[in-house]
Amino acid sequence: MVTESQTAEIIKRRTRNTTLVRLARFTGLRLVALVATVVVGVYLTILIANMGGYVDQIMRNDIRERISQQVAAMNVTHPMSLEARQQLTQQLIAQDVKRLGLDTPFAVRSGRFLINALQLKLGTALNMVSDHGSRSVESIILERLPATLLLMGTSELFLFFFSVFIALILSRKYGSIWDKIVVTLSPTSAAPPWFYGIFFILIFAAVLRLLPFGGLVESPPPANTFEYALSVLKHMILPASSLIISSLFLSIYNWRTFFLIYSSEDYVDMAKAKGLAARDIERRYILRPTLPTIITNFALLVITLWTGATITETVFLWPGLGRTLYRAIGLYDTPVIVGSTIIYAYLLAITVFILDFVYALVDPRVKVGGGN
Length: 372
What we know:
The protein is an all-alpha fold and about 375 residues long. The protein folds into two domains: about 25-120; about 135-360, MetI-like fold (Orthogonal Bundle). Helix content is about 75%, strand content about 0%. The mean pLDDT is about 85.
């Protein structure tokens, strides 16, 4: 005869097994979906970067023009017959076409490119080089990464925490003069950062001559470490300010509205009726329910630091990943474009995967894998 304790243990064991099966199924399906998304996204990037294979034709024309000029220059110093020049031209063109893999059909090359990219074998750039003369895509990206992390990290992290802090304060003072000012100024975020950057350059660099036009550091760079850091900080003021100002008021407005929605819930009114302190109410009943959203925004912000601010970095001549990507697009340098994309895609997929489990930890209403 089965006792009540044995029955309870059996039910507990079955529940645990069911939970593990549900968790394993959810994890497997989520990984498959994310991998498929990454593969499709990277392959589309390869197709777009190559314009469906049209870039191959552009590269062939560039090779033909360059080789023809080289042979013509050689003919000046070492005269050759017309037939010899044509034969040498065709031979050199064939060598370059084979070296770049253009003799292989684009469909085959794009498949190989996709497999290598997924394995983080980024290869060599076609037209770009690092400051040390390396054509390795990995070297080019790693060389530009610190400048982007410095600029984007400083501006975006300041924007995030400052917006949340000010929005929380404004949610306590709904309808105040400061609240109305933020609401009024929120449409100014419709302008992109580079738009503000151009105005900042005109005002503070061209007219007032208080700050430099662009770049990372003075030329020549200061030898002293402290002076070097001050120079970098001085050069970073304008691009960082443009990134912050372009999104500041809209970000505050969004978070303020979000906090107001949760502060009007019935359980918040009940907590106020019980006489709980305002800070306790904010921490337990307003901030805690919004924690999944705050974590999501922060996590996505961190991975977007990799992308850089393409046009803003270009306007300020900031040597980061954004400007590198802009140059790569202009030079049709597919390996650099795909290299930046695959790293961002992996970071995004990993972040989304981890966030599903983080939600279950910070919010008891969320169950990984669904179910009751």
